[in-house]
């Protein structure tokens, strides 16, 4: 008998999209100017961090699906919260499309993400999610420092 | 033919323990006094956050294994970095022991974590990991604000 799956592909996608929904609300919670200008300790603005996440998620998944190991290219050319949210939503759609193209049997293939991070596909995808949680947690501190109540972490 | 697993139980444990190793290094990176006293925007100190993580991981997993839905009880009685690191390491051992007691076929059972959060076991465990990444990301901002270089996020 085969070992039962501890988490299915559909569950992992739902989990990730739940996180993406929360991150979207964190972007929304920032006042326009603070989104682009506020930072602590010399760190990047949350607008910059959000664009890092956008530059990773869509292109990273497409790279996995198409087996194209192109270098990471960070696009930080968005200038308004509205533009960032629009790009966020496009990426959310792309995540659905490309994630679903990865077959279950491919999650243990090695893939050299962005021509640089060689690990199994499942590990690349966990990295996308973890990196989003990591930077979003930083956004929570920015919001608190701005005296703005962030959305509840457990609401997805 | 059964669908191949996208991530195995052993891989998820290794992934979590990699995160725990990084969080340990973040605790270590704080100067003793700042660990307990520094905060931004009225948030909790990193010592407090670390003790939240300790109060969740070990007891949460034990609850899942023993099917005991006891209320969450936060213990924040540790007073030195050394004590926190010792308790962290004990919890790391406990995570190995209890995680391995959960059978693959039980990851989709519903469990009412701390008598309060009813979801599948796999989802409870992802929550433990995500919550750790979230708070650790906040610790990174504290360290940056203290002009201390945090460990690399991708080193586990």
Overview of the structural elements:
The structure is a homodimer of 156-residue chains. Chain A has one domain: Four Helix Bundle (Hemerythrin (Met), subunit A), CATH 1.20.120.450. Chain A is built from 5 helices and 2 strands. The mean pLDDT of chain A is 95. Chain A starts with 8 loop residues before the first helix and ends in an 11-residue tail after the last helix. Helices cover 60% and strands 5% of the residues of chain A. The first copy, chain A, is globular, with a radius of gyration of 16 Å. Chain A has helices spanning 9-29, 32-37, 46-66, 81-101, 121-145, and strands at 110-113, 117-120. Chain A has 156 residues and is mainly alpha-helical. In chain A, a hairpin with a 3-residue loop joins strand 1 and strand 2. The A-B interface holds A 2-9, 11-12, 15, 19, 40-43, 104-105, 107-108, 117, 122-123, 126-127, 130-131, 133-138, 140-147, 153-154 and B 2-9, 11-12, 15, 19, 40-43, 104-105, 107-108, 117, 122-123, 126-127, 130-131, 133-138, 140-147, 153-154.
């Amino acid at each position: 008998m085969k070992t039962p799956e501890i988490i299915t592909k559909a569950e992992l996608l739902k989990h990730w999209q739940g996180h993406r929904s929360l991150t979207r609300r964190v972007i929304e919670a920032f006042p326009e100017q603070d989104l682009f200008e506020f930072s602590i300790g010399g760190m990047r603005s949350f607008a910059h961090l959000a664009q890092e996440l956008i530059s990773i998620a869509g292109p990273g998944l497409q790279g996995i699906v198409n087996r194209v190991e192109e270098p990471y290219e960070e696009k930080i050319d968005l200038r308004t919260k509205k533009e960032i949210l629009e790009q966020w939503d496009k990426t959310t759609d792309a995540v659905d499309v490309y994630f679903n193209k990865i077959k279950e049997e491919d999650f243990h293939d090695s893939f050299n993400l962005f021509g640089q991070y060689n690990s199994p596909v499942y590990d690349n995808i966990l990295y996308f999610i973890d990196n989003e949680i990591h930077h979003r947690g930083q956004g929570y501190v920015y919001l608190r420092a701005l005296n703005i109540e962030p959305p509840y972490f457990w609401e997805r």
